[in-house]
Amino acid sequence: MITPADDVRRFLGFIRKVWAGSMGVVIALVVGFLLGIVYKQGDIIDDCKYAGSFRVHSQAFTCVRKI
C-alpha cells in the first residue's frame, strides 16, 4: 500500500533529480542577467557622457548628477 509519506519521498526525489539536472541552466540565467545589467549601465553612462540624456523605450531622461 502506498502511503502519503511514500508520495512525498517520490516527489522530493523527483525535485532533486530535476534540480541537479538544471543547475547549469540556472547558473547561465543568473550570469546572463548580471551581464545584461552591466551592459545596460554602460550604455546609459555612455549616452549621458556624449548626449546628456538617455532613453528607456519611449521615455527620455536627462542626466543630472546628484551628490
Number of extended strands: 2
Average predicted local confidence, pLDDT: 87
- Note the gap between the termini: 69 Å
Alpha-beta content class? mainly alpha
Q: Strand arrangement, largest sheet?
A: 1-2
* Cα shape: rod-shaped
- Helix count, per DSSP? 1
Low-confidence stretches: none
Largest sheet, in brief, is: 2 strands, antiparallel
Percent helix, as a range, is over 70%
Tell me what portion of residues adopts beta-strand conformation: 5-15%
Radius of gyration: 23 Å
Topology order in helix (H) and strand (E) letters: HEE
In words, what does this structure look like?
It is a single chain. Helix content is 70%, strand content 12%. It has one helix and two strands. It has one helix spanning 4-50; strands spanning 53-56, 59-62. The chain has a two-stranded antiparallel ribbon. A hairpin with a 2-residue loop joins strand 1 (53-56) and strand 2 (59-62). The longest helix has 47 residues, at 4-50.
What is the topological layout?
Elements: H1 4-50, E1 53-56, E2 59-62
Antiparallel strand pairs: 1-2
